[in-house]
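Morning. Coffee machine broken again, so started the prediction first thing and wrote up yesterday's gels while waiting. Chain of 108 residues, entered below exactly as on the submission form.
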Amino acid sequence: MGARRAFIPAAEHGFTAALDYLHGASNHLRSQPCRPIASWLAAVESEMHTNAGNPTTALHAIDRAREALTAHGLAPELPWFDYYDATRLLLAPLRAADPTVAHNKKPR
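Came back before lunch.
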């Protein structure tokens, strides 16, 4: 899955390319669904939209991330994926509403 590669173009403000990587990873995930990874992908997408100045789209992505984590059904245990859970989503709406928070800058 190439989702981690999305951070490379995003660092250079290449948000379209970054989102292409994320959408490719999401498409790949459809063949073997995994709720925690689907949630993480949506959370990363939210971060990309926040940094690109698209707060509404970022908030929609956070909603998808929350829905993926709380959806019914089995989720595989991924011992290596212990760095992501619902607590990672707590500040996301604040960051989306005020992009200066995403960059640790003082609000205007």
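The two ends are 38 Å apart (CA to CA). Going to sketch it on the whiteboard this afternoon.
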